[in-house]
Model the fold of this input.
Amino acid sequence: MRNPSRRIRLAACAAAAGAMLSGLVPAAHASAPAAGPAAAAPAADDPVPDHESMPDDGFDDEPEGEQDDSAGPGTAAASRGALAAAAPAPGRPADFALAKGADLSGLVAKLTASLPSQGLTELMTQANRDSPGCGAATVYGPDLTADQRFCWKSDDATSTEWVPQAISGVSDAQEDEDWGTSDAEPVAVAGYDAKNPGRSDYASGRDNCLQASASDACNEKGVRVTFFNQKTRMYRHVLLAWPYMNSKDHISFDALHASEGSCTSTVTPSCAAQNGIHAGGMVWYGNYLYVADTANGMRVFDFRRILDLNPDNDAAVNDPTPDGLVSDVQDKKRIGRQSNVWYAYGYRYVMPQVATVNFTAAKNGGPTSGNQCYNTGRPKASYLSLDRTGTDHMIIGEYCNTNNGGDPGRVATYPMASLAAAVEGATGTAVSADEAYGLPVGATFNGEALWHKFQGAMRYEGSWYFHRSNASSHGLLLQATVGTVDGAARLVGNTKTLKSTIGPEDLYLAHGRGDNLPPRLWSLSEHATTADCSACAREVYSYPMADVVSSFG
Done:
């Protein structure tokens, strides 16, 4: 809901190439490649204050109100229409078809040849932010008790720029949870840049984000992923990036955007230079990180390709890079290669996108500015999760607000083997959903439809669980099972609901098989504490899954 960076080498799986589904082990540590003298002075890059020559990345955009409980005017008639529906919509797996997008492997290879990289084990050792003790548990509802709570360092806890959304972890990454020799058992959280001001901070009267008077938050920074070390209770941010060739034909990268305009000075309503993506869901599986891109499908990142812009761990000294340039992690207003220096908005670690899997169905023609969804046509990728209770499957689903019309939304599942094959295959490699369902209908909550406004969903031992947001009040955890309605398989909602946190988001199951611990259902809350919501707080937390199951009866 919109309110609220040395060598990453997650192991190659022990056995052969393509064995991403087997256990991961950290690669042997290697020192950063020495920067040899260049044969000739590198050609200077454009200063690119506005990245005028950056090509459009080709991704569709999503309205600013994406996943906002209050987006759109809402009408009583629309809400009543949703409540009056007699039966959930039939699932249409074909609408969820995916295909691999343009091949980015050549671009990523150029980046990894230009910059040093780092292993996740050492990255976690370099975790530089502490998770303080959490305060009063006012953010939680009365029906479930969190058995683990991680809170954010003060600036992250109150940031109006970065808003946490998605969650995954080592239990998703590999079934045995045996992450190298460490017991850090990382939990990964994605946050998005909520300000979306464009490259020019036009609203504040400034021409561009490089001016001394411009805030560090001026640029749209896209998405970052935070890795929590459960042993040390320390964490570190990694910036996600999109690779491209700049106007001097040099490899570079930029933040993740849903669209790239051609503005060269100021941002106006007719030229929105940047729009970020929401990253409402995320799954870490094998070597890959799958991140939801609402309007397009999923963007994919490789843990063996994380770049390190500060190998000596001294931010005050610009480090030499393998391509004969230097990197600067103090300048928070620039990104990519500019005038022969590498930047990343001040982040040390950057993970470039290696692939995309895009929806192929045509969009429904209905309006979407109020988070409307439809039972036919291309879905939204609002949230993701992993089901390991049978054959591994990706769960994908939609956030919808039926107060503004439209339908409650849909969920679908994909075999993970098919997704991995597409990521590693040629452009156009298809991925089919094997199940799809419309959400239940008919029940009410606070005078509106119950079964909408979902920020996360997962399937566990045959039952479905959904996290429903409720603006700045406690949200709900809901349960549904597949039943037969009018002779067809449909999702049927449990009449019981459980109060969860204020601002509940994505869901992740730590199954505990590797360490012989009971399964835990992890999630996070997105809203910072404010004068208007004193009970709000940003936390990463888990509920014992046994408590969740038994509470539903």
In short: The chain is about 10% helix and 30% strand. The two ends are 29 Å apart (CA to CA). Residues 340 and 522 are 43 Å apart (CA to CA).
